[in-house]
Every structure is written in structure tokens, then in C-alpha cells.
Amino acid sequence: xxxxxxxxxxxxxxxxxxxxxxxxxxxxxxxxxxxxxxxxxxxxxxxxxxxxxxxxxxxxxxxxxxxxxxxxxxxxxxxxxxxxxxxxxxxxxxxxxxxxxxxxxxxxxxxxxxxxxxxxxxxxxxxxxxxxxxxxxxxxxxxxxxxxxxxxxxxxxxxxxxxxxxxxxxxxxxxxxxxxxxxxxxxxxxxxxxxxxxxxxxxxxxxxxxxxxxxxxxxxxxxxxxxxxxxxxxxxxxxxxxxxxxxxxxxxxxxxxxxxxxxxxxxxxxxxxxxxxxxxxxxxxxxxxxxxxxxxxxxxxxxxxxxxxxxxxxxxxxxxxxxxxxxxxxxxxxxxxxxxxxxxxxxxxxxxxxxxxxxxxxxxxxxxxxxxxxxxxxxxxxxxxxxxxxxxxxxxxxxxxxxxxxxxxxxxxxxxxxxxxxxxxxxxxxxx
Length: 432
What we know:
Radius of gyration: 24 Å
Number of helices: 12
CATH superfamily of the largest domain: FAD/NAD(P)-binding domain
Distance between the termini: 61 Å
Number of strands: 19
Largest sheet: 8 strands, mixed
CATH architecture of the largest domain: 3-Layer(bba) Sandwich
Number of domains: 2
Shape: globular
CATH class of the largest domain: Alpha Beta
Strand order of the largest sheet: 5-6-4-14-15-16-13-17
Structural class: alpha/beta
Low-confidence stretches: 428-432
């Protein structure tokens, strides 16, 4: 066949493909994905289940999945007030790491990180886990010495962590300003190379699809309005779609855990506060790691779409509002522009807030309660997303076996009676 014939055939095929694409787009434009195959079923509640998980975020979905996948508990329901991943799972900034100081924290977050490393294969769903590294920088000699102490503690638990000089930081992140006369001079930092980010909605969708395939009933737009008990034993829940009988209830409702606990006359040692974040307009890739600063309460990364994602610490007041206050992002942007002057040229694309539960020691609660069959997983503060697979895995074990394993044991409610707290304010003092 002559080359001219090949060219004509190629052009004809291209025209045909364009016509098909245009007609296909036009044909499907008004159906709003209605002809797409559903990733998971939309179930209606049955009258009874072997267990019910309240909360359809990442932790709740992971709990339901591992209950079904590992412990064979398929007659379970996951109840969500709104839509899956619509709470903190969809309102966080997706950072994942395990470089915590205390042994108890290292155990749970490293357990989670190892699960992250195989999660896409486990769920057969790409959660876009990117091990781009997390760099925490210091701005004073005192902070640098404390950082060195923390790195040695992290290494003792077998977790990767490396100290970096300002020059090494500049080589890793060319866009950062390390001039000594800036307001927050960079004196050093430490890096966890295995840390990174993941796509938050993909995590929710992957767990939901996998749990649904194992027979879990996923029930959305269903609010829990009461916990039913017979003396010291849970016997069911009350919802806007009717009552459900069950001997086991796992509560995983970040931000509103105390509201649910109050239904069972339980007082949890947590405070609920807004946590804010912002993203800029998208730009070309310039930052391939995550930068954190505890001292100035700022962290920054670049999303796969090119947006610069910035977060800070929690607002200093209790609230269930998902808006936050202006001083937090103002301080956050001021610190970010000092370290990355080019940010001053970007426009803010959107801002949002989530509600986080914070314990006095900045560590979570994974615990049975005095009511048999009632369990709580809450108090993750600003670090809940990174723990998603580990949290769900451990909480599922607690619910299935009615006793904590070695990782969950230190996170019992009993620690607030004994005084054996896990003080991670140094590692969890900034939103990440």
C-alpha cells in the first residue's frame, strides 16, 4: 500500500474518531453518569445485623472492609449520615507518615504506613499513594536539637528518618528560601522518605467498593439518632430509616464523637475544633515533596492537579462549624510566602474546614466502653488520614474479638484514669 493511501486512511480514522467522541459526549452530557456502572450498592437497612459501623469516612469504611475480609463478618452495615467520604476524609490534605516519637505512636502509624504501601493492590483500586517524602524543617537552635532527639527515637523503632542541613534541604527543594535574614530562617530539618500523600476520595471509594463486594451493606443519608441499650449492653441503634438490632456498634464519626457518645451517657475527653486548609490555582510541577513546619504551624505540598495545598493548626476554640476563622489562614500564608516567595503571585482557589476531635494528649482513642458491644475510634486530631488503614485494621480486630491487641491497648479510655498518656503534641502540634 502506498504511503499516500496510509495517510488518507489515518486521516479518515481520525475524523471518524472525532465524530464518535463528539456524539458520545453529546449523548451522555445530560445523564449525569446515570449509565455508569455503580462502584458499590446503595443498600437499605435490614432489621438486624451482627455489627454496625457508624461513620462512612475512611476509618469507618476500612473497619467494615477488614471485618468482612479478615474476620468473615459479612452481615454488617455501615451507616453514614451524609455521603461516603463527605466528612474529614474529603476535607483533609492527604499527608501520610509514621515518624512519631513515642513507641505507641510509632507502632500504630508504622502499621498504617505498611498497609498504605500495599493498599492499591489489596483493594484492587488505585489510591494514588505517592511516597514523595515528608520534610519537617526547624527555625531555631532549640528546635533543631529537639528534632535530633526525635530522629534518634524514631530510628530506634526501625522507622526511616534522616537529618538534613540547610544546604541539603535547598538541594532537595530548590524553590525554598534559606536566606538567614528571613522571618523564619531554615536551620535544618528531618526527612522521612517513605512518607507521602494519597488521593483521599480514592481511598474512600476503594474501601467502599471492596467492602460492598464482600457483602457489607453501605447505607448513606441515614442519621443515627439514638443508641439502644439494655442496662450495660448495646442492643441496637435508632436511625432516620428505622431501628436496627445489633449486638456490636463501632462508632467512627470524627468531629462528632462526643455527640454520639452522649447518646449512651458517655463523656469522652475530647474537644471538637475546626481545622482549615486552602489551595491555590494550579501551576506547573515545582514541589515534589511535602514541607512541614511545626514552629510556624504551616505545611505545603503540590497536588496532582498542580494546586499548592496549604494547611495549618486548629482554630483555638471549640466548634462544629466547617468554616474556621481568618487569622489561621492569614498566618499560614504569611509563613508560606516567607519560605516560598513565589506563592505571593498565586490566587487562592478555595478554602475549607473540617472538624477534628482532639484528646488531651494528642493521641487517639481506640477502645471498648463500659457498655458491652459499644466501641469508639476517635480523637485522631489532625492526623487521622495517615492512620486510615491501620486504624480500620486495628478497630476491626477490637470489634471482632472484643479485646484490644498490642497496638490498640495503649489507646484505651482507661489511660485517662491511670495517667499513662501518650503525649504526642510535639509531633501533632500542626495539622498534617
